[in-house]
Amino acid sequence: xxxxxxxxxxxxxxxxxxxxxxxxxxxxxxxxxxxxxxxxxxxxxxxxxxxxxxxxxxxxxxxxxxxxxxxxxxxxxxxxxxxxxxxxxxxxxxxxxxxxxxxxxxxxxxxxxxxxxxxxxxxxxxxxxxxxxxxxxxxxxxxxxxxxxxxxxxxxxxxxxxxxxxxxxxxxxxxxxxxxxxxxxxxxxxxxxxxxxxxxxxxxxxxxxxxxxxxxxxxxxxxxxxxxxxxxxxxxxxxxxxxxxxxxxxxxxxxxxxxxxxxxxxxxxxxxxxxxxxxxxxxxxxxxxxxxxxxxxxxxxxxxxxxxxxxxxxxxxxxxxxxxxxxxxxxxxxxxxxxxxxxxxxxxxxxxxxxxxxxxxxxxxxxxxxxxxxxxxxxxxxxxxxxxxxxxxxxxxxxxxxxxxxxxxxxxxxx
Length: 415
Ligand SMILES: [Zn+2]
Hints:
By secondary structure, this protein is an alpha/beta fold. The protein folds into 2 domains: 3-315, Rossmann fold; 320-403, GMP Synthetase, Chain A, domain 3 (2-Layer Sandwich). It has helices at residues 3-24, 26-34, 56-61, 92-108, 128-139, 151-160, 170-182, 204-214, 327-338, 369-390, and strands at residues 75-80, 87-91, 116-119, 142-144, 165-168, 194-197, 217-224, 229-235, 242-244, 249-254, 268-274, 285-291, 293-294, 306-307, 312-313, 318-320, 323-325, 344-351, 354-363, 394-400. It has a 9-stranded mixed beta sheet. Strands 10-11-12-15 form a 4-stranded antiparallel beta sheet. A 3-stranded mixed beta sheet has the order 18-19-20. It starts with a helix and ends in a 15-residue tail after the last strand.
């Protein structure tokens, strides 16, 4: 699509989404009124900058259905963020759009109707599995919905069913590759050609490892449930940035502290406005993901702008195995489970490309046997509670309280 055609289409869609949110979502009406913005005032794409931002906290404050722009009877699917604090809905049209956009990302990553696509993403409340699944069916590929876990079975299926395209998080793809090597499988035992990786940051080293051990071309893709799920942006086979589906998402890069737009090509926080979502539109949603828009055109011929890989976040949330972990939530959980706050530190440990979440829990030094036994019971209760609430297996270790920094209660996440 030519640039000016795209801009005209974006403006028309933006005007429509302004009117729709103003009429149907009290939250947005109040926000626009408060900023003295009439939906009809949006006459050019640059007017977007005058609109108020929407944060994850805004979405949480309207749990579960407060930001839906259609009545529930028009919603055909409901998903939620990992910690269940944000609920998102889809109309029949939204599901169709989602399938089309995910199909684009899959095709850009090298998938066609001749492929056997193994989707090793969660088929559950999170958006990953179902989002990719519908896109792959839309292309006409043969889809194997293996979901996550059971690594040996995944490999058996990959081999026996002659999987040609794998969709997984980078960490899980690397684990599959390593397990395959441990099994001593000869090179060429698999029919894999491509891997589409998303849900957590993909470093150059990790990509190379996955490409080497699985014998694939690995592309990165990006999406988040608050905006739609996977299908927002994805790399083509050139692997030099993620093409953004700009006809459905307006992207801006802003300085996370001043919230002013950054100079072209500079890094900043990615802000997304949905242009076509019916059930759950968002205006200037602050993703907290840090990236930049890449200059120039892509040799593949796609005219959409490309964004750089997301390598870090502008807040202190980090991503472990595709799950967002908010240190504030962890601190709250200690209180919920034990009835009081506890000195702790969050530690991300990486072993061979797989991240794991370890919590160091501070205790007074004690060699008293009864005390140790009490602490073991406590740790087990904490471990179960935290793992189930965070949706992620957590390891707990007791450390001397003095060895924990008084603040802050975490170490930086990967990337
Ligand atoms: Zn390209």
